[in-house]
Specification:
heterodimer; A: seven-stranded mixed sheet; four-stranded antiparallel sheet; about 0% helix; globular; B: mainly beta; six-stranded mixed sheet
Chain lengths: ~110, ~110
């Protein structure tokens, strides 16, 4: 069964450092998303991406965050200068864009900011 | 704006007993509704979805959910709990090809 793959599975970084989280969505999907889940809390929407541009973003997705689909397969989330409160599990998801909004999620990348 | 309320952050049931996890939604248009399951240290796996077809939806692992528009509910049930059902369950709503809005989750514990 097609799946969304994410790397790395776990990254530890120092506060202020840049982090890039990578995702390979399902190949024929058209919509791409990043969500995050702070430990013990609910899954929160960060950003959606369609037709090579951001289609929607949440209040969390400030100027420190950016997304890119550089080569037609990878979908990356960059955090420019990490803060302690960025520590979370980050989930990538993709959606075929046909009919119902059924997202397939990756296994997540756990980010720990020290 | 869409929202989801999951009643009960923790639910415990005995093995073999009925599982009932509650979800109420708010949406300005006919919604799409989903249940996802998260096992420890894993990602989100789709259990089932409602997309305006049959109101009783069957999913994986013996779970089902019923869409009740009059009650704005989409409760998840399973007739007989199994130890392997222990996980976190998230209800989510969407208004089309838009973002999913998740509930706060319900942690299901199965008592042997």
């Amino acid at each position: 069964e097609p799946e969304v793959t994410q790397t790395p599975s776990h990254q530890v970084t120092q506060m202020g450092q840049e982090v890039i989280l990578r995702c390979v969505p399902i190949s024929n999907h058209l919509y791409f998303y990043w969500y995050r889940q702070i430990l013990g809390q609910k899954v929160e929407f960060l950003v959606s991406f369609y037709n090579n541009e951001i289609s929607e973003k949440s209040e969390i997705f400030d100027d420190q965050f950016s997304v890119e689909r550089p080569d037609g397969s990878n979908f990356t989330l960059k955090i420019r200068s990490t803060k302690l409160e960025d520590s979370a599990m980050y989930f990538c998801a993709s959606n075929p864009g046909t009919g119902a909004n059924v997202l397939t999620f990756g296994a997540g990348s756990r980010l720990t900011v020290l | 704006a869409q929202s989801v309320t999951q009643l009960g952050s923790h639910v415990s049931v005995s093995e073999g007993a009925l599982v009932l996890l509650r979800c109420n939604y708010s949406s300005s248009v006919p919604p799409y509704l989903f249940w996802y399951v998260q096992y420890p240290n894993q990602g989100l796996q789709l259990l089932l979805k409602y997309t305006s077809a049959a109101t009783l939806v069957k999913g994986i692992n013996g779970f089902e959910a019923e869409f009740k528009k009059s009650e704005t509910s989409f409760h998840l049930t399973k007739p007989s709990a199994h130890m392997s059902d222990a996980a976190e369950y998230f209800c989510a709503v969407s208004e089309g090809n838009e973002k999913l809005t998740f509930g706060t989750g319900t942690r299901l514990t199965i008592i042997p």
